[in-house]
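REVIEWER CHECKLIST
Item 1: Sequence provided? yes
Item 2: Single chain? yes
Item 3: Sequence as submitted:
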Amino acid sequence: MPLQKEKTLILSGDDVIRIVEKFGIDRLMDSLIERLTNAVHDFDKSKTDIPIRSGFNYQTENPGLIEWMPVHKKGKEVVIKVVGYHPQNPNNFNLPTILSSISSYDTKTGHLNGIADGVLLTALRTGAASAVASRLLAKPKSTVLGLIGCGAQAVTQLHALSRVFQFSEVLIYDIDQKSMDTLRDRIEMLDIQLDIKTASIKDIIETSDIVCTETSIEVGTGPLFEYHKSKPHLHINAVGSDFPGKTELPKELLLQSFVCPDFFEQAKIEGECQQLSDSEIAPDWVEVLQNADDYVQVKDQISIFDSTGWALEDQVVMDLFLDLADEFDIGLEVAIENVSEDAKNPYHFLTKAVEV
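Item 4: Structure as written out by the authors:
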């Protein structure tokens, strides 16, 4: 039997950018929202295994964590994202807070099919997840969007949500004045014609139809605000709570809301749901999306999407980029694995050298 050297497709950060430029950023986000909606709608626990992410966190001069998020689509592939979260990156190293890579493995052989830069992919899929959840839980005619936190994630949150809602106004807040001042410039390429205004957190909560919280609040310092009042149908995409003890929302608000987690078991450990008992948490978005007719009334009440990051989202965005890389012939194919001509002899290459 001839030697089979399987190739691994490597998509660098530049390759990812080329794919976005060729396909178009709006078209890409629309495709991702559609694929993610279908994936959540069709999710079957017996066919896809998603354990809680695990990793290491450390309190050093530059505190942070490195985690791995696996998903097993049985009979097809295993996708693993390794993600680093280091909140001091932007100020200390001019790097994104979140750095990551995503890899896909063939479950028939264990072969590494592809590996891609995950920085942009993570931002895209998190924005798309908020769009899917908001379309499911928020008032369809929502016109005022609030962004609490104006860092990198605010860009994809605004982009994704603007693809499914007709906003007329965006209210923004960040403790960093520069982040607020530069947000308009950072979304200029999206050509979103919206009135963007700075506002206090209190005003954002009271006047918005949909709010996204995506801050780097430190462990034990939450919540971001005290809850007094809001529109009766306020929907919040709580994105920033992703670590034990790190929460953005006040418990009083959670107790008055339909709190829908992306991944129940994980949200109990790292999300806003860590503040609640099991009985105070609503069904997850899989249950709500698969039985949408039973949850129509939620659009008229306060709802919260507890978005801790679900590995299925990584699989969806990775598969999309692998498909587009194939369509546009982008990326570098490398025989990265050491495959011997004699599968039972890892030193076979040395034997050949002696024979020569």
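Item 5: Key structural point noted by reviewer: The longest helix spans residues 119-137.
Item 6: Recommendation: ____
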